[in-house]
Amino acid sequence: MSTTAATGSVGLVSTRRAVLTQHGPLVLASGARLDHVEVAYETYGELSADRDNAVFVCHALTGDAHAAGWHEGARRPGWWDNLVGPGKALDTDRFFVLSANLLGGCSGTTGPLSVDPGTGRAYGPDFPALDVADLVTAHRGLLDHLGIDRLHAAVGGSLGGMQVLEWALQEPDRIDRAVVIAASSRLTTENIAFSAVARAAILEDPEFHGGRYAEHGVTPRHGLKVARMMAHITYVSAQSLAEKFGHARDTAGGDKRLAADFEVEHYLQHQGESFLARFDALSYLHLTRPMDYFDPFAAHPDAVPSTRFRLVSFDSDWRFPTAHSLRIRDQLAARGVAVDHTEVVSPWGHDSFLLEPPGYHDLVRSFLG
What does the pLDDT read at residue 74? Predict the structure, then answer.
């Protein structure tokens, strides 16, 4: 049984924004420059007098800065509320936890929907292509803005874990501990293929208009919905789908129809529809593409982080299965970096990093201690 039973919430929280370009543009890995960059972020807990208890949480593809607690009037807690809070694995009675929205996102940090100061209109399709390194550069800038020189830890799952790995290789002496969960250091061809189908659904939607859909007063709703439905299938396990839905359907006996009939179809339709209310198509394109090109050990061939690593994978995760974590482990160990890996048993697939399979949160808690 998890030891998080008697824990609490961080309570009501607010999202703040920091301007990172007061002293010059943000230079991307491609050489492109962003003259005005804002980062949306939240913090939980108190920064110690020695400023040595900061833990940075890096979110996954469609996450945001709201990792824990509740916004006033919000209908849902933060996306990692089961992990972050008083007495939880990321114990806010001990740690000062930061969570920030990604560069290129659509939840307060500069992205394709933001106004380009050079033109006075939204970047749209002119927003520069990003690298995972750029996502990290923006968050490094946030730490500098807040006057935090070193992290007690950085923690992330999926794309969040990829950011943590990149960060430790970019700044080998800035992070004491790194928790990399259900992540990859180089996508398989199959992973790239899944994302290619999702992007094609968006790019080929008649309402995409070359990325200038906002100027036409529309959004590529159908493409974005299909992209989310496709991706969501890869986040869950066959076991969890079978147990939740089986072959339950609306029709009975020999009745059949072409429209959605099975319960799992309705579930995916709901996932796609609800996604439209909170995410932007161009952000989806800009944040999936960097994952395809991610290869940090090749990009930083001589980096030897002083960081200690805890890797976690899940036995039912077929999007980033344990082999991905073992590759990270072996690459780090070959450089003499302290690294441990555990495969956790879970029925929930890739989404397990957001949930509480037995033993998972205890691994994080003990490592951060």
Answer: 67
Asked if 287 and 318 touch (Cβ cutoff 8 Å), the reply is no
Are residue 115 and residue 175 in the same domain, yes or no? yes
Last residue of a domain, one of 287, 315, 347: 287
Locus of tokens 């992973």 = 191
- The Cα 121–Cα 131 span in angstroms is 24
Rounded to whole angstroms, how far apart are CA atoms 232 and 249?
A: 20
Beta bridge partners of 19: 38
Query: Per-residue pLDDT tens for 125-144?
Result: 999 999 999 999 999 999 99
Residue 224 in any domain: the answer is yes
- The residue out of 264, 287, 310 marking a domain boundary is 287
The SS3 assignment for 262 reads: strand
DSSP, res 180: E
- Is pLDDT of 106 > 50? yes
Model-wide pTM > 0.85: yes
Here the CATH number for the domain that contains residue 160 is 3.40.50.1820
Judge if 241 and 157 occupy the same domain.
no
As annotated, the active-site residues are 158, 317, 350
Position 1 pLDDT exceeds 60: no
Asked if pLDDT for residue 3 goes beyond 70, the answer is: no
Amino acid making up residue 136:
V
> By C-alpha distance, which of 189, 128, 191 is closest to 159?
191
Q: Are 314 and 353 in contact (CB under 8 A)?
A: yes
CB 208 within 8 A of CB 112: no
323 plus 218 within the same structural domain: no
**Which residues face 33 on adjacent strands?**
27
Which of 5-14, 32-41, 103-112 has the least mean pLDDT? 5-14
The yes-or-no verdict on residue 2 having pLDDT over 50 is no
Domain range spanning residue 27?
A: 16-187+300-368
Q: Looking at residue 200, which CATH number applies to its domain? A: 1.10.1740.110
CB 349 within 8 A of CB 317: yes
